[in-house]
């Protein structure tokens, strides 16, 4: 029972940190001290360390000497490879889903797109989070735990990459592309769905450019406050 409780705590911290990274509350290079995380989430340093180890395995955290952990800073080469691998996985996702969506699943996706539309003109971080969730929903609808896991990991890592390299952009295109993908899936057109996904993810990747991150003073406790249990984690 204790091991299960510890696992739940680790999972909750990981989910909170993933969301903080996607929403750009945490930026590449930000330090993640075990003691500060433990205090913020009300857990031991051991639990905090386990969460950091899990996120390091997902490529979201870099572990350095002397147990120093920081939000990962992917190189440009890693960024391009990540998008290429993600494209291959998501092409497989839409091929599996073409013609297989239930009416309930279609409505779930359309509701998500409606949330994306409502977020237009607002914070870019929110648009990125909602767009990432759309892709995770598609993966989950395949019923494949393997696809769901790897699409999720790559989706979060791509969101991290965009926070480091992306140019300002309008979310209008992404929303319309999501709608077109759903239409192709409902029509059972696997080839069109795959082509649309290719174009969509290529367009997302093309928004990236190499720019040095801006140094900032960071108050970890303040930044993570909205992501602790009961605050959006």
Task: Explain what this protein looks like in three dimensions.
This protein is 67% helix and 3% strand. With 233 residues, the protein is mainly α. It has two domains: 2-73 and 214-227, Winged helix-like DNA-binding domain superfamily/Winged helix DNA-binding domain (Arc Repressor Mutant, subunit A, Orthogonal Bundle); 76-206, GntR ligand-binding domain-like (Four Helix Bundle (Hemerythrin (Met), subunit A)). The protein has a two-stranded antiparallel ribbon with strand order 1-2. Strand 1 and strand 2 form a beta hairpin. Helix 1 (2-22) crosses helix 3 (45-57), helix 4 packs antiparallel against helix 7 and helix 5 packs antiparallel against helix 8 (172-187). The protein is globular and about 55 Å long. The mean pLDDT is 86.
| Overall outline | globular
- The structural domain count equals 2
Q: What is the CA-based Rg, rounded?
A: 18 Å
Q: What is the strand arrangement across the widest sheet? A: 1-2
Helicity range of the residues? 55-70%
- Quaternary class: single chain
Low-pLDDT sequence parts? none
Query: Average pLDDT value?
Result: 86
Given this structure, which CATH class of the largest domain is correct?
Answer: Mainly Alpha
CATH topology of the largest domain: Four Helix Bundle (Hemerythrin (Met), subunit A)
CATH architecture field of the largest domain:
Up-down Bundle
Strand residues, percent:
under 5%
